[in-house]
Amino acid sequence: MFGKLFGGTFGFMVGGPLGALVGVAVGHNLDQGLWKASIGLSSDTDDSSAQEVFFRTTFQLMGHIAKADGRVSELEIAAARAIMDHLRLNTDQRRTAMENFTAGKQPNFPVDASLETLRRAGANRANALQEMLQMQLNVAYADGSLHPRTHARLLDIATRIGLSRLQFETLHQFFRAQQQWSRQQHQYGNKRAENQSHSQNSHGPRPSTPIHSLEQAYQVLGLSREANPAEIKLAYRRLLKQYHPDKLPAETASAAEIKRATEKTREITAAYERIREARGL
Questions:
Q1: Rounded distance between C-alpha atoms, residue 17 and residue 259, angstroms
Q2: Full-model pTM
Q3: What's the Rg (C-alpha) of the chain?
Q4: For the segment 226-246, what is each residue's pLDDT rounded down to a tens digit?
């Protein structure tokens, strides 16, 4: 149902803490062509009214969500602009998107009428409505946490466009699980880069991992101490392929399953790095 909604690729491309937050929900499905296809439209379709409604209302609601806690932060604006970048909007489209964002944060924004128009345009286009909510979640979490008033506003939007509370919270929990994974990967990448800037003889602090000994590292990878470098690399890649969260069936994976897969992947990666360091590979 949800597809591979929250790939971390875009987050790493953007870079930094904001990239880690934005990337988890933009993913591959927010590619401009896929988004248009999901609402049953293409660039040469005659039926442009629904596409226009989705475009206008999506950015209006971003402003509406950003304003929920009383003020619109620079991070929230940056999150909206990052989505524009990934959707490959041209100069005129970006200007229109920002005008809609600004309109949505006004006190007199007619949210009821806008959501009713969106609900009608989104009939039989559930995937597009879900992707629209993903973008709202990006803005909602741009500051790093979810304000209670923002959560209430998101839930109201979901209900008005035809999603049940259970459907929304499932989407929400999936988002949070992937957000945590992306943040951990970003932090791990930063820590590894810091370590690599020192000599191999440096005795600086090691990044925290669930691996407490070299023996445990070999056990995690299912290897003996006699394993050669090729066997070590092969075992690492095989286990990653087996346990990585991206390998879970996106339509049925629960937040708990994603969490378990994330923790297992971290353990495998930590074990591999421990062995590499010990052997000087």
A1: 20
A2: 0.53
A3: 22
A4: 888 888 889 888 888 888 877
